[in-house]
Every structure is written in C-alpha cells, then in structure tokens.
Design brief:
heterodimer, A: mainly alpha, MetI-like fold, 73% helix, globular, B: alpha/beta, six-stranded mixed β-sheet, 38% helix, disordered N terminus, disordered C terminus
Chain lengths: 329, 308
C-alpha cells in the first residue's frame, strides 16, 4: 500500500521532470535549431528527418500546436529517440549516453559506496573510542576534504603517476592494447586505470562521512538505551553495533541517498582531470559545443537516476528505521 | 523544586513504609566509604565517602535534589561510570544468593558483564528513551537471554518473553512492537519486564516514573511493589520526590552534595526528621493537611538561615 503510494509519487516527480525538460529549450531566447543546423551542415549533409526531429525537440516548428509537440516529444522519448548529438555527429544521443554511462556508474558509483562504508566504519570506531588516537585522526581527514578536489587530484597525479609512475596519467583503459569488450584483459586494464581516480575521490570525500558518523556516535552513546544496553551486560561489540551505530547511522544513510543521486552527474572535475570517458566528460563537451540534444538527454538521465536512487533508499529506509514504517497500530 | 499535589496528598495520609531497622540482618549489598569524582579543571566530588547497607528484599529510597550525586552513586554500584567520572576510593560488595561475596569494583570485562543484569538490573529515568528505537521489544529481550542464558532454546526464550510481559501487565503481542508504538507507561513496564528477565536480586530504579503523568506513575509504583512482594528482589529507588519514597520505601537515605545526610526508616523520616535539610525537603512539598502556606514560608526561611 505505502509502496504503491511512494511509486505513484515518484511517477509524478518523473513526469514533472520530463515536462520541465520539454519546456526549458522552448524558453531559450535564441533558436537552437538554427545554431545546430549550421553546425551539422558544416559536418555533412542534413536529412529532412533530422531537421524535423530537431524542430520537434526544441519546439521551433510553430505550425504544430504546443500540446501536439508535447505528445510527439513524449512519444519520441518512449521510443528512445533523444535526437542526434552534434559533438559526436552523426551518433544518436542515446548511443553517446549508453557508451559513457557505464564508466561513470561503475567508477563513481562504486567509489561512493566504498567511501561511505569505510567512512562509516572509521566514524563508528572513532566515536566509540572517543578521545583516543583513532579519534585524533579525524582533523586530518577533514583537512583533506577541505582541499579543492582538482588540486588534490593533480598533486596525486604528479606524485603517483608522473614521478613514481605507479598509475597511468588518465583515460579509461589502455587504448593501444585492448578495446571495450568483456575480456579479462580489458577489465583489468579498466580497473588499473580507475584506481587513481577512485583513490582521489575516496580521499577527498571520506572526511565528511567520518566526521558525521563520529559525532552521531558520540551523541548516541549518551542515549539512555545505550546505557541500558551496557547495564544489561551485553558485549561491547553488540552495544557498539546494534545499539549505538545502528541508530547513529540513520542520518548518514539519508545523506548517502542524496550523494548516490549525484553519482551520474556529479564528477565533471574528476573526469576532466583524468580524461575519463564518462558522463561528466560528455557533459562538458556538450556545453562547449552547444550540443542541446546531448545536454537534454544528459539532464534526463541525471534526473531519472536521482529519482531512482531516492526511491531505492526510500524503500530501504523502511527496513532500517521502523519509525518510518507505516503500520496500523 | 518540583511539587506534585496528587502524590504528596497521598503521602500526607499514607502509612509510611514497613518497620525500618537501621541495619539489615541479611545484607545484600554493602557500600563502604565510596567516593566518586568527576575529573576536570575543577574536580567535582559527586559522591563523597558514602556507606550504605542494603538488606535482601529491602526497598531503599535515595532522595535528594538534582545533582546531589544519587544517580552517580547508582551507576557506581554497577560500574557504569565513564570518564571523566572515577571511583577514587571505597568498596562495593555484593552478597550473592549462593553465599559468595562479590567485590564489584574488582570485576572486569566478562565477569563484570555477567554480574550486570544477572545480579543487578536497572530501570533508567528516561521512560521514553530506554528502549532501542530501531529493534523490536522481542529482539531486545532476546539480547539479554542470548548474552546471559545462551543455553536457552528459541522456544524457551519466546515463552519467557511472553511471561515477562504478562507479569508487568502488557499484552504479549507487544513483543513485536517497537518503542515508538508504545505509550510512555507501557515502555516503562516493558523496561521493568526486561529488568526482571534474569530474576536479579537487586533492581536499581533511577527516577523510573519521572517522565510519566501521575496516574500512570501510580500504576507503575503499585506494579513495582507488587512484583517485589512476589519475587523478593531488593530495590534502590532514586528520586527527588520524597513523598513518593515515604510511601514505598523501607528506609530512606537523603543525599546532599554527595553525602548521605540522613538515613532512617520512612516513619522516622516522616515524623522525626533529624537533619534540617531533610525537614526542608519535606516542607517543600505542599500538604493537604498542613496549614495553608506553611510549607512555603518555612522552606524559604530555612533555606536562607540554615542551609546556605
């Protein structure tokens, strides 16, 4: 029942996002279609279908009433037609996104998850042993979090890639030796190339998780139910995990949901520093080249992923916090 | 100072506790010269040289204003203090049912955990916050059994959990509830059930009824006294509500600035309090039978003249 209601809510939100995506290009002051057509013609002949699709996409075909345009837009979305990218002409936007998305999803997604898990574990221990040496590590991680990401990334590239030569300078995989396919060689190469970007993300974002969890632990430890658990003679491990950390983690998990939503769109700087072939890179190119179709498509993917991540955590949250469960009492 | 008309009106006509001998013949817990400090820039002597003997099955009331050290003393009995609180001197001996004497302050790790809840269980002041909000009542009871009675089967635990809730007058169906699904009174009943789980010899109650309204408060108190008569555990009952203590306690210790200023049977405290501070505490509660305004003026006067 409540799950259905949640799903309905997310459907409404998705619908609103799609509508916004339809409306924004129609509010642009200039005529993006002419700009685009000029660029496309410079690269090769433009078919009448392409012209028609672009006009539909941006709503410059004034002969068609707006509601008809909206329906056509929804229909082309439903059939997976997001137009043609100017940057990667004549590749369709869907293909550009499909080839960039896995890179970002795997690298940034996994890294975000790893950062969260490690941060929570260290935060739990630091809070549990407040005042000891573990606790005194916290300020150093906070300093790392406050350093600008691009600077930290470039310092690490200089130290580990340029000077020490442990990691490659950038890119997604070794283009001379392998190509994207499901082989051990490609996967190990991709993993090797992802290691340094992943490391920089972990280092720069772990401080926040540790600090948040550590502080929540400290305040949870003074709760009556934790003192009761100690008085009950439970083992310290049990008190720390089931009674303290289980409660202290709740706000961080909500924060994790939000950061998951940013995985798809959020790492433009990282992909720029490491020339990583992901969504952030595609985004930057789209902006630089006034590639409206690609931008629109990327917005759509980001919106859907934010909504999806939120829905997932929303559903998950009911299992970890019984107070959010709707139940007839 | 909190005043509570219902409770004190009851106290005004109450027959104060059972006959209170000053030293119990069969001691359960002996505290001797216990001192507890809170270390800091200015060290606070929260408990200073407190000695106390608790008899088997006895209810001792520990009364005093906020910050007088009564909770700190209770935590010390169970070694629950965390830094900056340290026990600087004194000893706590628990005289076990089996005849063994346990030096509580010498217990460590495993032995300490075995002692906790098995011998001494506690009910804390926050009726609302003593239950873990994210796991069910059953899981929290199971935690106790899994730790202290690992040989119990699942069915036995289930049975015992149901029995315990019935004992305190809560529907056993509530085992699967979470804290937020229970009322304040029910939560405190569940906590008392949990405190009874291992059939302890001593139960420390740290203001167990403070967060509850007076009607529920009364129910819980009746429940505690009934259970004590049935099961025979001793109780250290901590509160700032002296009239309430007069009703339920065998003996009462009045604490002030970390010291016990007076210790006597409930009757003696009520009819013939020796210490001026005890008299001030008694007068700070309105009485139905006393003269109007009497307690307030005398209390205020006393505070200026004798106590300061």
């Amino acid at each position: 029942m409540s799950i259905l209601r949640k799903l309905a809510f997310y459907l409404v939100a998705l619908f609103a996002a799609l509508t916004l995506n339809f409306a924004i290009p129609r509010m642009l002051p200039s005529n993006p279609v002419d700009v685009l057509l000029g660029k496309l013609q410079a690269q090769g002949p433009v078919t009448p279908e392409t012209r028609q699709a672009l006009m539909l996409l941006f709503g410059t075909d004034t002969s068609v009433p707006i509601w008809q345009q909206y329906l056509d837009y929804l229909q082309s979305l439903a059939t997976g037609n997001l137009g043609v990218s100017v940057t990667y002409f004549p590749t369709p936007v869907t293909e550009v996104i499909a080839s960039a998305l896995p890179w970002t999803l795997v690298l940034v997604g996994l890294t975000t998850l790893i950062t969260f898990v490690i941060g929570m574990v260290i935060g739990t221990i630091a809070g549990w042993k407040r005042g000891t040496w573990v606790d005194s590590l916290i300020p150093s991680t906070t300093i790392l979090a406050s350093v600008p990401y691009f600077w930290l990334a470039m310092v690490l590239v200089y130290l580990l890639s340029v000077t020490a030569g442990i990691f490659p300078l950038g890119g997604g995989y070794d283009v001379r030796r392998t190509s994207p396919e499901l082989s051990f060689e490609f996967l190990s190469s991709a993993l090797y190339y992802a290691a340094l970007p992943a490391l920089t993300i972990v280092i720069s974002s772990i401080g926040g998780w540790i600090l948040g969890m550590r502080n929540m632990m400290v305040s949870t430890l003074s709760e009556d139910y934790v003192i009761t658990a100690r008085a009950k003679g439970l083992s310290p491990k049990r008190v720390m995990i089931t009674y303290a950390a289980r409660n202290a983690a709740l706000p961080s998990i909500a924060g994790f949901a939000i950061s998951l939503g940013f995985v798809v769109g959020g790492s433009v700087v990282m992909e720029q520093v490491f020339s990583y072939p992901g969504i952030g890179n595609a985004f930057l190119l789209a902006v630089q080249n006034n590639d409206y179709a690609l931008m629109q498509g990327l917005f759509l993917v980001i919106t859907i992923s934010v909504l999806g991540a939120n829905l997932l955590v929303d559903l998950l949250y009911q299992f970890i916090d019984p107070r959010t469960r709707a139940r007839g009492v | 100072m909190s005043t509570n008309p219902e409770m004190s009106s009851a106290a005004g006509v109450a027959t104060p506790g059972r006959s209170g001998s000053v030293a119990p013949d069969s001691p359960l817990l002996s505290i001797s010269g216990l001192s507890i400090d809170y270390l800091g820039e200015r060290t606070v002597h929260a408990v200073a040289n407190v000695s106390l003997q608790l008899g088997r099955g006895e209810i001792i009331g520990l009364a005093g204003e906020s910050g007088c050290g009564k909770s700190t003393l209770a935590y010390g009995i169970n070694q629950l203090l965390v830094p900056p609180a340290v026990i600087t001197e004194g000893g706590v001996t628990f005289h076990d049912r089996s005849g063994d004497d346990i030096d509580v302050l010498a217990l460590e790790d495993k032995e300490l955990r075995r002692y906790r809840w098995n011998k001494v269980s506690m009910v804390f002041q926050g009726a609302m916050n003593s239950l873990n909000p994210v796991i069910s009542v059953r899981a929290q009871l199971n935690d106790v059994f899994a730790t202290h009675r690992p040989q119990m089967s699942k069915a036995e635990r289930r049975l015992r959990s149901g029995e315990l809730l019935e004992l305190v007058g809560v529907d056993p169906k509530r085992l699967d509830s979470y804290a937020h699904e229970l009322s304040g009174g029910m939560r405190q009943r569940v906590m008392i059930a949990m405190a009874l789980a291992l059939d302890p010899e001593l139960m420390i109650m740290d203001e167990p009824t403070t967060a509850l309204d007076v009607v529920v408060q009364r129910d819980i108190l009746l429940e505690i006294t009934r259970l004590r008569e049935e099961l025979g555990f001793a109780v250290i009952f901590i509160t700032h509500d002296l009239p309430l203590l007069l009703e339920i306690s065998d003996r009462i210790a009045i604490m002030r600035h970390g010291r016990i200023v007076e210790m006597a049977s409930a009757e003696e405290i009520f009819f013939a309090a020796q210490d001026p501070y005890t008299r001030q505490l008694l007068r700070s509660f309105p009485s139905l039978t006393g003269e109007r305004g009497d307690f307030i003026r005398h209390g205020a006067q006393l505070e200026n003249e004798e106590v300061r």
